[in-house]
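Contributing new records

If you add data, match the layout below exactly. Sequence lines come first and carry their own label; structure lines follow with theirs. Keep one chain per record. Anything else will be rejected by the validation script.
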Amino acid sequence: MNKTDFLRDPSVGDFVSWLTRTLPSLPVDLKLKRSRFVPASVNRKILGLDAVLSSYIWQSVGMPNGDWSETRHRLVTLANTLTAAVGANDNAAALDACRAILAWGGNRDWAKGAFPFLQARANAGTLCQYLRDTSQAFALASADTDRLCPPVELLNSMLTKVHALCSSDGLPIYDSRVAAAIATLVETWRVQAGNSGTPLPAALVFPATMLSRTVRHAFPDAIAPRVMLYGASATCTQWASAKVRLGWLMQDVLQRCPEIFPACSATPALDDRMHAFEASLFMIGYDVACLTRASHGTSQAHR
């Protein structure tokens, strides 16, 4: 499936139309507990995806507050460092840039998962070529969901960050929170349309990456795909497809809805707006029940 095929899908068209009508005034009841990356609890009833971004928090290593402004600046720096290293074919520098991205992302075990995978390619002198090949495959303008794996060999919650920051077109980070949020928006649309009991449209299947964050935390009876399993043969293809399809979806919504995130920067390019969109999904994904709770008492919400 390419971008044209995806956007021509009737279910995608209906969902995009619903999103463009709904997101500017989407009610969200954010309730976040204090945690490793959330220095203070969050309890806000808000309206609109833009307002969700104003509550963004990810206080990673070396970040004084972790709000969206600080995070966006950090991501630009991380992305520029990685793409410069890849452009120079400097495998050691590329690995250092990847290590910094994983540290920002909260990597917990440097002996497993993403870092050993990247390190092995750096040691073999192929990391930069791998990232160039995968970036070409992930390019949203030309990607084909049937031709992503290979060249993509492995995806997990850390590697999805590396690929997103090696991109220049707004390719989203598809992690557990983002996955749960977009799946819950799909189900919200299906419930409102009276289609929640029908088969989930294939183009709008956004699988969860972990059992503790799924659409069923908001809609217990939702028809949902199985949680992707780390190391399973199908996971790379499923994860890469969801990542690209989410990117296509976000691009189309933002192009149709210019009022969403109009001031992410002095010159709000589409990729910058897409990262803001992704960050708002990330916040919703902490607890997707924030969307169902918010259906009550929205008159007290604020922008």
